[in-house]
Design brief:
The chain has about 325 residues and is an alpha/beta fold. The protein is globular, with a radius of gyration of 19 Å. Helix 4 runs parallel beside helix 5. About 45% of the residues are buried. The strands form three sheets. Strands 3-4-5-8-9-10-11-12 form an eight-stranded parallel beta barrel, surrounded by six helices. The protein has a two-stranded antiparallel ribbon with strand order 1-2. Helix 4 links the parallel strand 8 and strand 9. The chain has eleven helices and twelve strands. The longest helix has 17 residues.
Length: about 325
């Protein structure tokens, strides 16, 4: 698989990353053995970037990755970890804590669960409104100096916060949602990242399964499934969004590929500084997504996709209103 660099300050990683959240959280029950097998299949296919968070399954996801990496060389894999999120025993969110002393505590537990001496990329999951970003990044810079962290990333921050953070310590990448139907970063964030030499690790490239090509109006979600509350999956929005998927399907069929592969390839084609993070939970999902690695989209393909799914054509926001409050990137 081709490789890309996480900005000027980060490591070289595979052109596609594997997002492991769904193996522990947010999208209903997952099979642990299948999750481990999926991570193994991803590594065998050349994926070297694994994305996780210490709150994913409240530690379960990090333990899962440790189990999957038992048979692999740790130094061959780059692990990206989000931190700072707070949760209650029932799984509900209760805010964010990015004070330096809290981050050191979170890192200690992460290293223990992963059974590793270092994290390749460490990032606050969201901006803590009570802690200046300079203090948060300053603490992470100390972690870099101590050898516990190799590079610092950010997640869902706006341009001002990005600049302030980068002034304290070079930022390797910004993890943020980006897909053919979630293109808000094109307004200002993407340009600022390129000016500063910060890569984009794009999550939500299939819009949480909406662009998989397999979603139907009849599909039901569990109460703990993020999509049961996500605006784009609600009855008033879903039919319009599925029509966009059908437009993509017609283009995918012309290229003899799948909607999922086409959608992922579109993100990858937006620049060599963008690394799509695919959220496969099974080997079958992974195989379908990996087809994007060999799908090269030319100017004609990109123009056709733009005509079929113009920017801002999706119905409904990417998060519910209460979740938007935690996104510095939306302010």
């Amino acid at each position: 698989m081709e490789t890309r660099q996480l900005g000027k300050a980060g490591p070289v990683v595979s052109a596609l990353g594997l997002g492991c959240l769904g193996m522990s959280d947010n999208y209903g029950p997952a099979d642990e053995a299948e999750s481990v097998a999926t991570i193994h299949a991803a590594l065998d296919a050349g994926i070297t970037l694994l994305d996780t968070g210490d709150v994913y399954g409240m530690g379960h996801n990090e333990l899962l990755i440790h189990e999957a990496l038992r048979s692999h060389n740790r130094d061959d894999v780059k692990i990206s970890v989000k931190t700072g999120g707070l949760r209650k025993p029932d799984g509900h969110w209760s805010g964010f804590d990015c004070r330096p002393e809290a981050l050191w505590n979170f890192l200690s537990y992460t290293l223990k669960r992963l059974r590793t001496d270092y994290v390749d990329v460490y990032r606050p999951a969201r901006v803590d409104p009570n802690v200046p970003i300079e203090e948060t990044v300053g603490a992470m810079a100390e972690m870099v100096q101590a050898g516990y962290v190799r590079a610092i990333g950010l997640s869902e921050v706006g341009v001002e916060t990005l600049r302030r953070a980068h002034a304290v310590h070079p930022i390797a990448d910004l993890q943020i949602e980006y897909s053919v139907i979630s293109r808000g970063i094109e307004r200002s964030i993407l340009g600022a990242c390129r000016e500063l030499g910060v890569a984009i690790t794009a999550y939500g490239v299939l819009s949480r399964g909406l662009l998989s090509g397999h979603w139907t109006p009849q599909r039901r979600t569990t109460e703990r499934d993020f999509r049961s509350r996500a605006p784009r999956f609600q009855p008033e929005n879903l039919p319009k969004n599925l029509e966009l998927v059908e437009r993509l399907r017609r283009l995918a069929e012309k290229r003899e590929t799948t909607v999922a592969a086409l959608a992922i390839a579109w993100v990858a084609a937006q620049g060599p500084d963008i690394i799509p993070v695919i959220g496969a939970r099974t080997r079958a999902q992974l195989a379908e997504s990996l087809a994007a690695a060999d799908l090269k989209l030319g100017p004609g393909d990109l123009a056709a996709i733009e005509r079929a799914v113009p920017a801002d054509s999706a119905a409904g926001g990417r998060y519910a209103d209460w979740q938007i409050a935690f996104l510095d990137s939306e302010r």
